Structures are given as structure tokens and as C-alpha cells.
Amino acid sequence: MSAIDEAPDDVEEALIAYLSGLRRTDRTRQAGDPLPFILVNHIDGSEDPDTGFADPLVSIRTLCDKGLGEAVAAQESALTHQWMLNLARVQEDISISGGRIVNFDYVNVVQAPRWTEYPNGQLLCKLGRYGIGLSYVRR
Asked: Is 0.85 topped by the overall pTM?
């Protein structure tokens, strides 16, 4: 096997597949997408091709309708965070496109969910950041 045959799985695709079991989840939100909604974005991290390991940093935003209030938004964000904590403990198999199964080596909470501004003033947003461990796999 050569390095060209190996790479980490797409962390965004895997987390979107996993969190879609909770609610609508994607990389971006389109007008009309139902709320609450989860945004998943790979924001940083590193890879070491010599050891075949990647550790991406991802942001997970839980968006809620401002009209429902902060208490509801906080509950929805807590549920999203609970799912991420479960993934950290259980290391579930995650099915992605092409019938592939992804397993994370670890999930670390880098920043527990906190309130943050969101460009759409009609939405409330809590943002958490997580470090994910991914071993290279054969492609």
C-alpha cells in the first residue's frame, strides 16, 4: 500500500451522517431548512502522513428560532452536545457514502457549547468545538 492509497475519512461527512440521526444537519443552512438545525464545519487541525493520522478540529453550531427563546435553544444545544459526548464514549460506527463505515479514534471537547452571534438575527446559536482523531484508511 502506498501513501496515495491512504487518507483520513471526511470528518464533516461523518459528523453530518451521525448528527442527522438527531436532526437536520449539514455544512451550510439554506433558507427554509427546518429549525433547530446543526452546522458542521472542519475549521482547523493537522495531518501526519508518516504516521497516517489526522486530528481535525470541527465546529458544531446548533441554530434555533429566536422566537422560541433562549431556554429552548439552550436545551437543543445541550442535546447536540450530549450526542457528541456519547460519540466520545461509545465510538459508534458511522455509515457514509459509498457504504463506508467511519470510526473516530477519539472525540475531545475543545470548547463546550457557548452562545455566539449568528449573521441571521432571527436565529440563536450555540457553538461547540471538538477535536476528532482519524486514522488513515485505504481508499
From this structure: yes
